[in-house]
Specification:
By secondary structure, this protein is of the alpha/beta class. It is 55% helix and 13% strand.
Length: 373
């Protein structure tokens, strides 16, 4: 039998929310985190790029080195009491990358030299999977430290989220050492052969890059190679970590066709290629519960509203009824896709949007009032 959202926030260690851009994925992730804190858990909500108003409400900034804890007064106003806590952190991959350098470099001096290397930020940004890998490293560290009972992760839009989630596999391709042997031929061979290979490589790179750039490149790779083995070992650990039973993945979508297509794409890759523990779908910003904003015909039976206005309202009400039926069918289609270990859950459309703590609380209330499988 599948577990619903209530079981996930009560039992899991990590919940990863993925989906297309613009579906309210960040809002759903933060609402889940708030709901878990209400149940007495120590929770961290890791966001990628929340709206400006929501970021301000959560008190997060892009370059914050550590998660920010919401105040007890703020949390009490939305039903969170000790031992429940809620921290929020906006993930900055470059900041995390810098932290990785400090942790894994042989010495503090080596770390400083690498961070001050002109090539460092450009190269780490270009290497496939490096930025995403460092983000996964941060998540992994939070969980293994035991600082939180639950970490809820809001990923980038789904195709980028796949880069985030399979970063350990892709970074391993870079970490096989071949790129280092090109820039550091002294890693191979010994004696005269080693010196000759080094001189030839230096001359070729001087022609290609210029001597100053070549020196900086070789310095970068010499320093970065010191953390190569540790990163490779951690990548293997994290591949296993994402498949653990206490980790759950939720696909957040909206009723829009483009969002549903992205949800299907992510589901296929998550299940078939990455073999991740998919727990279910959340159909956000939907009218699947049947709530109606416009009056039905009974409202007009004894009304003083002019007929011209009534005609416009009837047209709007009819259109809304069609949308309710459409969204209910979308939810039924999602439910038909899941097996016994998954669920399909609707989240309502909130007319005022979700941009502060009280509106997050309203979304959390609606999500768990409608825990329908």
């Amino acid at each position: 039998m599948s577990r619903g959202l209530a079981e996930l926030i009560a039992e899991q260690t990590v919940i990863v929310c993925a989906g297309a851009g613009g579906v309210g994925k960040t809002s759903v992730a933060c609402a889940l985190a708030l709901a878990a804190a209400r149940r007495g858990r120590r929770v961290l909500a890791v966001t990628i790029d929340p709206s400006r108003r929501l970021a301000e409400a959560l008190g997060v900034a892009r370059h914050s080195p550590e998660p920010i804890r919401l105040s007890a007064a703020t949390l009490a106003a939305v039903g969170v009491a000790p031992p429940g806590t809620l921290d929020a952190w906006m993930l900055d991959p470059q900041q995390v990358s810098d932290n990785v350098v400090h942790r894994f470099a042989k010495t503090p001096a080596d770390a400083d030299r690498l961070l001050n290397n002109r090539m460092y930020r450009n190269i780490t940004a270009m290497v496939a999977g490096m930025q995403e890998y460092t983000a996964v490293e941060a998540l992994y560290e939070f969980v293994t430290e035991g600082r939180y009972d639950l970490v809820v992760l809001d990923t980038p839009p789904s195709r980028n989220a796949l880069h985030f989630l399979d970063a350990p596999s892709r970074i391993t391709g870079f970490l096989d050492g071949r790129v280092f042997r090109f820039f550091l031929p002294s890693l191979d061979g010994d004696g005269v052969a080693k010196r000759v290979a080094t001189k030839i490589t230096e001359k070729v790179m001087d022609i290609a890059f210029g001597q100053e750039t070549r020196v900086e490149l070789m310095s970068f790779f010499a320093l970065f190679s010191a953390i190569l083995h540790r990163l490779s070992h951690n990548a293997a650990e994290m591949q296993a970590f994402f498949r653990r039973p206490e980790v759950s993945f939720l696909i957040v979508t909206s009723p829009a066709r483009e969002a549903l297509d992205e949800a299907a794409f992510f589901e296929h890759r998550a299940r078939q290629e990455l073999r991740l523990p998919l727990s279910g779908f959340v159909l956000n910003r939907s009218l699947a519960f049947g709530e109606r904003l416009f009056p039905d015909d009974a409202y007009f039976a004894d009304s003083q509203v002019p007929e011209s206005a009534r005609a416009k309202l009837r047209a709007l009400a009819a259109r809304e009824a069609e949308q309710v039926a459409d969204h209910q069918q979308v939810l039924a289609n999602l439910a038909a896709r899941v097996d016994g270990d998954c669920f399909a859950q609707a989240a309502p459309y909130l007319e005022e949007g979700v941009s502060d703590i009280p509106s997050l609380a309203r979304l959390a209330d609606a999500l768990f009032a409608g825990d329908r499988r």
